[in-house]
Amino acid sequence: MNKNLLGLNNPISTLFVMKNLILIFVGILLSTGIFAQDKKGFDFTDGWAVTKKGDTLRGKVCYENTKTGEKFEKIKFIDAKDATQQKKSYGVEKLTSFGTKGLVFEYITLDEEIPPMIMERVVTGDLNLYRCWFKTQLSTPQKMDYVVGMFLKKKDNPELYEVLDKKFIKEMAAYFKGDEDIVQLIKEKNYTVKDIDKIVIAYNEKE
User: 32 and 72, same structural domain?
Assistant: First the structure.
């Protein structure tokens, strides 16, 4: 074939053809979702979700936007049994908990006047440790800003106890009153709020 018919002997024409081929290739990738997923910040990973009826759903879970840092109130879920692989939004009206990437999340009622919120169960045992995120006024559509909250919840007590940095050792000594080994550990190690997971693990490991 005569290269002149395609204009390939002309550097400008060659560049034009190559540019169009690249645009076509990118368009194909976008249409298949290879680039679209990263652009939107939706990272779907293998996971599960438990419904209020007690059924366990298996599939792909997305609970945050990796681009903006937004924590979703309703997770995005792709059911493994759904042949269409449709993305659905599930929240507290349908789910009690979900998990992905080795993390476990529950819908927890913090205040009766507000809907249950998603909390990550950091430590599980007779004493559970939860982490949650409170949106601040610094948040924008492009970048979300959160303050992290930590809460304790005993298995035989539905009440949540907020872990605060202020007077941490004194507050923890009061919370663990009667468990002298734990109180002593907190004081000896001079633990701070950043060490709360170590304290909860030590409590759960007690015989």
Answer: no
